[in-house]
From TrEMBL, chains A, B:
The lineage of its organism: Bacteria, Pseudomonadati, Pseudomonadota, Hydrogenophilia, Hydrogenophilales. GO terms for cellular component: cytoplasm. Keywords: Methyltransferase, Transferase. It comes from the Bacteria. It comes from Tepidiphilus thermophilus. Residues 35-108 form the RNA 2-O ribose methyltransferase substrate binding domain. The keyword Cell wall biogenesis/degradation does not apply. GO terms for biological process: methylation; RNA processing. This is tRNA G18 (Ribose-2'-O)-methylase SpoU. It holds the Pfam family MRM3-like_sub_bind. The keyword Methyltransferase applies. Belongs to the class IV-like SAM-binding methyltransferase superfamily. RNA methyltransferase TrmH family.
Length: 272, 272
């Protein structure tokens, strides 16, 4: 195991770069690295084969992270930092004691990766917690990729990374300005969730074939130009006295209805 | 319509009380009123028959809220406040321009209200956005009540109110210390979500009868004493490479699977 470096000043260039990454979306977009906080996210990244460049541990807490530190590649720098420096590196209010800097890896969005799988396209979903939860749900449901249209939260933002709980390491994700090529290349059907009365109830749809799902922002919904491309507008039947679901909840209900129908087709003891 | 009052000082006692309500959980718990921000939540509360005591509008934005102001009961005070005072009253970073104070109304948690309906009991769900999304989902699914066990976010917290989007006005909600009476009084089955391999896949469960659902915190899950009461531990089948869903997503998948099975029973053109 390589020896420890020490940082005791918040003016250290490495510390300043990470602080800037945490606070500036425009800086994050052009830098080819990202920062993960907490041993859960770090472990998920390591398990997915991501290579950390440097790990920063708050002094006195090294023993707690023995398992993670053991799993680091020899090329990864180990840096022990003072408590005030660690607070500068942490994005959370209750810092976890460990932060790592990784070279950013994009999972390729190729037709091969996506053949035979669902795609999700989000329109204007701003709230980072929702975007993160949607990425996590999509990864769990085995979706091929998530495309973030205009107005969506930056998927590398610290809050999105935290809420996604490692989805970034197993799921191709791309921010796109124009979904036309994706509409043009599609092989399956396109479904858009909408509150319209004429929309088809989710449970009346056959979802066994791969589809492209469109989900819109709270209130505004999916923009009309995209709705026009959809083969069907879909609504989730709601017996209770609410108009709509949170977008992340709606995504979970739709994607897992597809999971259910496919399991049912495979005859795995599913209740109809 | 009653005439406008004016407040131009943040030291006004009404303003100070609202600020304290926004910032102090212990104060919120003992005060019999609550604060709602934005015309969407206000309208939902008015539609549900809640009576505002006072409405505070940022000066210059009165015309934007004409419809809401028109719908106010004559007993409700209308207060025009300066922009700095409004910023003191608002919990959000992009203030909506309207805030109202309501007498708090608890929907009764009686056996009659709950007969023949699902119940949801949460264990240690701390994150306000998750608790709010769960309340919204439960209300949409027609659940009878949501019980918040120890360690859950305060359901009157501003972030929970915002995320629940009006669920508080249509759904009985109670914070409880001890679920034993609820377990003892139950008529249907008790299901707990768990990651255990021996858990029953959700889609193999018959969910047409009312049930009590237990959902636990991220990581820790439902506490063992409560799990022991469950008739079945349930897992959501996940074809993708993730260990678990966000708790609010898991609630949505489970409760809407019950919605689907009941619609299917009612033969409303549901795909099996």
């Amino acid at each position: 195991m390589s020896s420890w470096q020490e940082i005791r000043s918040r003016d250290n260039p490495q510390v300043r770069a990470i602080r800037r990454w945490l606070n500036e979306a425009s800086f994050r977009r052009r830098e080819p690295w990202l920062v993960l906080e907490g041993d859960h996210l770090l472990t998920a990244a390591l398990q997915a084969g991501w290579m950390p460049e440097a790990v920063f541990v708050e002094e006195g807490r090294e023993a707690r992270f023995a398992a993670v530190l053991e799993a680091l590649p020899p090329t990864c720098a180990r840096v022990r930092v003072s408590a005030p420096v660690f607070r500068a590196l942490a994005a959370t209010e209750t810092p976890s004691g460990i932060v790592a800097r990784f070279a950013r890896r994009m999972l390729a969005l190729t037709p091969e990766v996506l053949a035979g799988r669902d795609l999700v396209l989000l329109d204007g979903v701003q709230e980072p917690g929702n975007v993160g939860a949607i990425l996590r749900t999509a990864a769990a449901a085995g979706v091929g990729a998530v495309l973030l249209g205009p107005g969506c939260a930056d998927h590398w933002a610290p809050k999105v990374l935290r809420a996604a709980m490692g989805a970034h390491f197993v799921l191709p994700i791309a921010a796109i300005d124009d979904p036309e090529p994706w509409f043009a290349a599609r092989r399956g059907r396109v479904f858009a969730t909408a509150l319209a009365e004429k929309a088809v109830p989710l449970y009346a749809l056959g979802l066994k074939a791969p589809a492209l799902w469109l989900f819109g922002a709270e209130g505004a919904g999916v923009r009309p130009e995209w709705l026009a491309v959809a083969d069907a507008c879909v609504r989730i039947p709601m017996p209770g006295a609410m108009e709509s679901l949170n977008v992340a909840a709606a995504v979970a209900v739709c994607l897992f209805e597809a999971v259910r129908q496919r399991l049912c087709q495979a005859k795995k003891g599913v209740v109809s």
